[in-house]
Amino acid sequence: DEHHVVKDEL
Amino acid sequence: MNIFRLAGDMTHLASVLVLLLKIHTIKSCAGVSLKTQELYALVFATRYLDIVTDFISVYNTVMKLIFLGSSFSIVWYIRHHRVVRRSYDKDQDTFRHYLLMIPCMLLALFVHEKFTFKEVMWTFSLYLEAVAILPQLVLLQRTRNIDNLTGQYVFLLGAYRGLYIFNWIYRYFTEPHFVHWITWIAGVVQTLLYADFFYYYFESWKNNVRLQLPA
Fold first, then answer.
1. Distance CA B182, CA B187 (A)
2. B106-159 pLDDT per residue, tens
3. What single DSSP character describes residue B177?
4. pLDDT tens digit string along B39-79?
5. CA distance B44 to chain A (A)
6. B37 and B71 in contact (C-beta within 8 Å)?
7. Which of B37, B141, B152, B170 has its CB surrounded by the most CB atoms within 10 Å?
8. Residue B91: CB atoms within 10 Å
9. Helix (H, G, I), strand (E, B) or coil at A5
10. Helices B58-80 and B34-47 meet at what angle, rounded to 10?
11. Does A5 sit within 8 Å of B177, measured CB to CB?
12. Chain A: residue whose CA lies nearest to B122
């Protein structure tokens, strides 16, 4: 969905 | 992955390598706060719970393993290595770091994105990392002469999250997805805590004098 919070960081 | 994020990760990696270099080669942890190292080990342990469940990229997984491995081995070195532990100044490193953990855990239980174990642990790790440097900064103020490696370690550690802020700004303007506001606030607070250190570090570099923090 558009408002997807990213968790791809360290 | 943008240049700010990569620069941030490389700066963070450099800080860890500088500290491991200092401890492993000269077998000394003088001026290094064990409390801050323990807090960072806890930060990574609670932030990287998804290392086995969510695969993002080889880079992501490798970096997580490096940060987990280095932070726990630094704690081991300072606590148990027969030579290194003698240079640990436990009388000076007296910050009660559990007084940092408890408020961070309470805050994570009330202010989070989703009330799941992983999410609360992840939020706790963000709040804890924001204040994890405090024992180290207090120790530096008590340590009259700060050696170069320790100064460089703290500088790089503070700079990495500052670079992440540029990364979040960049992503905000270039990607539909966004980084959660808790990450933003924790990152800004963390970087601001280094403000006075950065000032004195820059001054000592500019005047080419030994770094000393005012008591």
1. 8
2. 999 999 999 999 999 999 999 999 999 999 999 999 987 899 999 999 999 999
3. S
4. 999 999 999 999 999 999 999 999 999 999 999 999 999 99
5. 9
6. yes
7. B37
8. 7
9. strand
10. 150
11. yes
12. A7
pLDDT tens per residue across all 10 residues of chain A: 445 677 899 9
Residue B132's nearest CA partner among B65, B202, B36, B203 is B36
Angle between helices B181-193 and B195-206 (to 10 degrees): 40
Structure tokens at B2: 């943008």
ipTM surpassing 0.90, yes or no?
A: no
Contacts 24+ apart (CB under 8 A), B57-60: B57/A8, B59/B1, B60/A8, B60/A10
Q: How far is B89 from chain A (nearest CA, A)?
A: 31
Give yes or no for a contact between B19 and B67, defined as CB atoms under 8 angstroms apart: no
User: Which residues make Cβ contacts (< 8 Å) with residue B104, sequence separation at least 6?
Assistant: B124, B127, B128, B131
* 3-state SS assignment for residue B178: strand
Interface membership of B161 toward A (CB under 8 Å): no
